[in-house]
């Protein structure tokens, strides 16, 4: 396993649970890069029935996380409101209600008055339609990958922080070993779950990975009177903004039109996500774009308690990239998190373990397999532009249907 973030840690746990001997290589401290900086939101109604089933499975596993792993996880089933400010987005909501209902995810339209009863800070103006999905949830992001690491260790996995994978031994049958500064680990299977570095790791395996590390940020305010954990998550589709309760204050994050894209190969080996340059003006611009729905962020007395960001990886179609790495027998990848990997990692880790051990996962992952890009790899400029567009229209991906958290 290369990487101890949400993807790598979940896969390590699910493999160890099946009796596999697993070593988790981590170039830095355990689970300390993008995963602990996430917002921790989940949403279950996704762009397709298969992705919706994956997200449903993930939420069921998040709810049962402590029972299953014995590790702590702050889990809040706050429910979620989704706000359309245009007729086009109201039509998207209608499709989401139909898809959710067909899949058994509770979701329906509610009035602005009903929404304001659940979320009293919501402004009335500019809302065309909104939905309420009571079973959506949020978790404390730092606890999830660490919990999976610790649970995997209890099942016999070896955790190796401060130990980068620096290269691979390949023979005619495929992967044969993983090189580290502490020696080579002999193995016939390697899983690239290296987050912002996944493309670099895949390149060392001889495979091209069409993902672009893209900065994503959020802020958390100091506590605000009247704001509590019973507040639901709220998302504004066209503005690509989310708001939720955190520590007595409000969390705000979102997807700007021109995000910072980075290439891991240009980062120094010692780079830590804490060194990532942040820009809070991006968040204030997003807050201004929803001032009619969230006037509270225009209050000059509001204080920021925390501003954080990380480097999720984007794909051109805003979908995960999970499965066998084409052309390298024994090499697997979990990447392309598209800013929604943390919440789905329980189901994806379980599914990739089945895929590796049983030859196929019990959930249908064809839509997110690397095979979908076979022969279709764009050049670097086009890749960046298409990933930028996927990020900038995140809540309206594809045919107008929301992709991820
Ligand atoms: C501000 C923000 C908000 C977000 N909100 C949400 C949300 O609400 N819901 C949601 O589901 N997701 C959210 N995300 C996305 C989520 O954080 C990611 O999808 C998830 O963390 C991806 O996990 P990962 O394991 O791929 O990456 P990481 O956590 O970065 O883990 C990858 C690990 O691989 C290690 N590594 C790299 N190269 C090597 C090597 N050569 N050898 C050994 N180890 C290596 C790295 O050091 C790192 O620890 C958010 C992200 C951000 C930044």
Structure description:
The protein is α+β, with helices and mostly antiparallel strands and 405 residues long. It has one domain: FAD/NAD(P)-binding domain, CATH 3.50.50.60. Helix content is 30%, strand content 21%. The protein has helices at 6-17, 49-63, 65-69, 87-103, 112-118, 143-154, 198-205, 280-289, 341-358, 380-392, 397-400, and strands spanning 23-25, 75-76, 80-84, 108-110, 129-133, 138-139, 158-160, 167-171, 174-180, 183-186, 190-192, 212-213, 216-221, 233-236, 241-246, 249-254, 304-310, 313-314, 321-324, 331-335. The strands form 6 sheets. An 8-stranded mixed sheet has the order 4-5-3-14-15-16-13-17, sandwiched between helices. A 3-stranded antiparallel sheet has the order 8-9-10, with helices on one face. Strand 14 (233-236) and strand 15 form a beta hairpin. The longest helix is centred in the last third of the chain and has 18 residues, at 341-358. It binds flavin-adenine dinucleotide.
């Amino acid at each position: 396993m290369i990487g101890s973030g949400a993807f790598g840690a979940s896969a390590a746990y699910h493999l160890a649970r099946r009796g596999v001997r697993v070593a988790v290589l981590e170039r830095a401290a355990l689970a300390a890069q993008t995963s602990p900086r996430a917002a921790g939101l989940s949403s279950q109604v996704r762009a397709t029935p298969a992705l919706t089933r994956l997200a449903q499975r993930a939420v069921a596993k998040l709810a049962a996380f402590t029972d299953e792993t014995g590790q702590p996880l702050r889990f809040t089933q706050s429910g979620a409101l989704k706000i359309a400010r245009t007729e086009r987005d109201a039509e998207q909501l209608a499709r989401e209600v139909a898809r959710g209902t067909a899949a058994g995810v509770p979701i329906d339209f509610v009035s602005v008055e009903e929404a304001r009863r659940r979320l009293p800070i919501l402004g009335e103006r500019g809302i065309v339609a909104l939905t309420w999905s009571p079973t959506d949830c949020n978790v404390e992001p730092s606890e999830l990958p660490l919990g999976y690491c610790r649970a995997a260790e209890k099942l016999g996995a070896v955790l190796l922080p401060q130990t980068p994978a620096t290269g691979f031994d390949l023979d005619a049958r495929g992967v044969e070993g993983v090189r580290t500064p502490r020696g080579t680990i002999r193995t016939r299977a390697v899983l690239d779950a290296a987050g912002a570095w996944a493309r670099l790791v895949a390149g060392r395996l001889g495979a091209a990975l069409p993902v672009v590390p893209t900065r994503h940020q959020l802020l958390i305010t100091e506590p605000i009177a009247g704001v509590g954990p019973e507040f639901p998550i709220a998302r504004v589709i066209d503005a690509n903004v989310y708001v939720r309760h955190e520590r007595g204050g409000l969390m705000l994050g979102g997807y700007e039109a021109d995000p910072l894209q980075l290439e891991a190969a240009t980062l120094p080996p010692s780079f830590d996500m804490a060194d990532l340059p942040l820009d809070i003006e991006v968040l204030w611009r997003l807050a201004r774009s929803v001032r009619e729905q969230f006037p509270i962020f225009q209050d000059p007395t509001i204080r920021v308690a925390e501003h954080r960001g990380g480097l999720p990886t984007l794909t051109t179609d805003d979908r995960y990239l999970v499965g066998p790495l084409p052309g390298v027998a024994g090499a697997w990848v979990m990447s392309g998190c598209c800013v929604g990997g943390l919440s789905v990692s329980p189901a994806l880790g379980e599914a990739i373990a089945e895929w590796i051990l049983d030859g196929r996962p019990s959930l249908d992952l064809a839509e997110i397999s690397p095979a979908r890009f076979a022969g279709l790899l764009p050049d670097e400029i086009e890749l960046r532009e298409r990933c930028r567009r996927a990020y900038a229209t995140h809540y309206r991906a594809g045919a107008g249907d929301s992709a991820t958290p």
